[in-house]
Amino acid sequence: MKTFQRKASSLVLAGLVAVSLSGCFEGKLSSNDQAILADQPFAYVVRDYPDMGKVSSANERPPLDPRAPYAFEPGAKLMVRDRIALSSGERDVLTRYFGSSGYDVKDLDVSPDGERMVFAARGPADNAAHSSWNIYEYTFATGEVRRILKDNELANLGHDTNPAYTNEGTIIFSSSRQHARGDWRLLDLREYLVDFEEPASLLHSVKPDGSDLTQITFGEFHDIEPSTMNDGQIVFIRFGRLYETLEDCTTADIDDPDFNQQTNGGGYGQGNGGKFPSGLEEPKEWTEEDKCTASLEGDTEGERVFVEDVLSLYRITPSGGNVHRYFGSLSEAFSDASFIHYMDPIPLDDGNLLTIMRHVYNPIYGGDVVTINSQNFFAVDVPISDDAIGEAEESMTPGLVNFYPNQVSPSGWYSSVAPYGDGSGRLLAGWSQCLTESEGITGVCEGSSTIDNLSAPQYGIWMLDPSQNTRLPVVRSAKRSLFTDVVIADKNELARPYTGDQHNLNLEDNTALFHIRSIYDLDGADMAAQFDGGIETRRDPSLTRPDDRSERFIRVLGKREIPAELEQAILTDVTYNPNDSTRKNLYLWPLLGSDNKKSLYDVLSYATVEPDGSAMVKVPADTSFTFEVVNKYGKRVDLIAEADYNYSYLMQHPQSLLLENGQVLKCYGCHDPELDTPHARTDVELASANPGAPGDAMPFPNANPTILAANWKDTMAEALVNSLGKLTTTWADTLRYEDYWSNPPDDSLAFENTYAQLDTPAPVTDSSCLTNWTPNCKSTINYLEHIQPIWDECRVNPNEGGALTSCTNCHSKAETGGKSCPGGDSGPGGDLVLGGGSASWDERFIESYVELFEADYYMRKTETGEWVEVEDPDAEGACPGGLQGDLTILPDPGVCFSRRLMSARGAIASARFFSLFDKDPDDDAYEIETIETETIKQSHTGMLTDAELRLIAEWLDSGGHIYNDPEKFEFPNP
Asked: Whole-model pTM?
């Protein structure tokens, strides 16, 4: 429930909207004029407010709804005045540009230097050159209007709305074009809001000259109304949905088409029969009957689904990095208050936000001017600390504004707002007095007024001075006029380009850094406490040795999407995807292989996880990346299935990050995505499970006493950097460990695993990276280029008296043999075939790749505990308990379990393969021990090197794609 802290003081009101206001003054200015005056130009959008209509479905949106960014409401006008004064004349800047009225315009924003204005507009219905929403720029000094994207075809390829300048001078805007998904006219790969059957409107950036068009957010939601904060970060609104499946909804609950008018309140904003409570003090909470009434039909017969719209404030950097929820609950309580939303948040100089808050179904399109105390609150009733001051939301206007449809609001309603920006605290706002009409006489609403005699509102633009509680007219009010946008051309002296926090380490150019306080921290809880005695036990080398911990390294992955043009080409290729029933479509299998996740990966760097779970990790700057926790063998640990392992949350970080050159990003630990508290904000101090150093210039308990923390609460990673004067992190070419923390350090624990140790091609595009790795280098693993050569490599067989052999020598078709190695024998090695050519059953497949990921089925005998292979799991009686996938661990009686040599889920789940070569205990739960297993292990011991096994683990953990470098992909010859 939203609650406001309101001001209770007298109001000085100059004039009523029912009174005609003078538009011109000559001679000496009055005191009212002096209070209004500012020499900056200002601009506004004025329109006739449209009829709300009858909204009786969750999927019907009224006019001017922020959830409907593509809606076209022609008849608006963009007006500009040279200064804020009653005597200032106005001019229409777009009617001449479009050749007629009938256009629509919205979403005004002023450049940091105050010289230009950007906005979204759509030409009249018959204007082919401006047939979609586009972004335009207006220069105040010259009056010039120009479209940012000059080419008509490119401009009209999508709906572009909600533009905002960054402090660097680029433009951020929301668009249905989804530029990263290619030309949707050829093959539509865009993400959609399913309920509305419309493409998601996602954030893009572009230079003012129309170059460098880039998509920076992704997902099935609308990212709208961005604004730039003084520190350069972009705050915006994300519109998404939550769904609740309802039980026992009766026909009477759902069949009334007029449910919005029912007195039980079960409607989208117009229920309660006009008996809404005042303000936000006691919004109606919905009952199950209310939810059933407003529900939608589900996927199965009789199922009803209640839909809740969620609009939360998010932040992102101008280049698309560190997107995170900034303010607002992930879920409002189910009540009428969930229809009251922020409109166009405006950053203030103190770091908080100014917004119009209104009910999206209020037919007079007004609400209240509210400040959002984002500096001290994560959400309403969720302070960032116990000593936070103020309220999360505070009205900036005198009196109580009532939000709900068909309510009397004696204090009127506000439709738009802009701060003067001159330090005075003054605001320009669209405002209408609440009026009544009786027998042709218009009056002002009073507390005793009812909705029966409400008159149409008359909006104008007014100056508000919250410090003086004054409201003075600036632009004449008119009947049925609505001012939906207002901006002031003020120079923002506090605006600065985004840089983030800067580290003071001597790192390579184009390098950034992120610091994790502890991977054992889950939203402030010590996850090591349940089984391992907590972080204080883990960090004590006398109690926990390095090999007692599976979590040894942070692996950083460069994350990139499949180029849209390539995805479209594969999906329309007649060989791979004939689409004519001649043979099955492969879809994106030729690129992705067994994994259907569309992200492609590069390995960028490694960093040691210190005993307390902390890590200092270097990454290439301006590169989209994610990261994961791996063990000493380079295997991602979240799939470890031991009964006493409680770190399954250590999966690959779900959000991409991107850091500027020299930036350091501080992270407390891991987070539950369902938790209703923003966790990625860098401007607030969060609770930390890691106690850190016991004091300034002190060592950690029972650890190497020569490593001293500079400050109380510093992590072990910080203390080690302080002690050594350098980072111990490595780039992707090297996985290295050295024991610094034991007392004394144990040199026997050190190891190094490098790409230089490979005899097969290393996964680098530039061989110089193996001797001089720079932030521009990356490890990109492709199956045929880097994994298949491991099977083909001639090597000494340590189990056969030193004879030369290769994997394909044995694992080949008996009649052809494998790769010929001098002095080596060849022949069948069971059913596994590792040839790198086209498969005999379908030339579109790679033979060895399919074989490695082919599922075999096993059952565990209850009486003996022995595993036996089931040749045909579909045969009658073969699997009486059914089939379960290869992620299943418990050997239930009668159940057949699939086990693959390799799993695209990751290296830990590929235990059937790795157990033949290494002694890693972390994947034991996935092993299958048949009678033949021990013999097979003996014949494979020592056959692959540590560097080869690490490379295979990296490849599997990144999805086991056939290609991670899409430029290496080749289409088959026609």
From this structure: 0.90
